[in-house]
Design a protein that fits this description.
about 140 residues; mainly beta; seven-stranded mixed sheet; two-stranded antiparallel sheet; binds nickel (II) ion
Amino acid sequence: MTHEPAVQRREPVALAEALASFDALWSPRVVTHVNDYDVRVAKVEGEHVWHVHDDTDEFFLVLAGELDIALRGPSGERTVTLPKGSVFTVPRGTEHKPSSRGGAAILVFEPTGTLTVGDRHEEVPDHVDVTTGHALRL
Ligand code: NI
């Protein structure tokens, strides 16, 4: 897994401009860093893949559209729905699968190097990019 160098941008990043710079779904771009964390934006539609991050929580903010996150816990499976403007944190060690029926733009905050498909995952479908986040090219 190649790890693109973390280059801290010296200018503000307009998220609308960042989102307009790519079309790929489930393929996050790193817009800035906070200490050892990435702030990433992604366009999503359809289903991601069940996966787990063993060592980190994962923060989601929905910028546009609506995101569903299916969660598997001790008491079974449930799905949380995040309309635009909502935040949710998936706790570390929790199996989860994001999806969006109508499409969404999301912001994710997680440690640099975190794989989009986690440390353990089901078979990754072709439409899902296995990445630690791509550099933003504006
Ligand atoms: Ni995840």
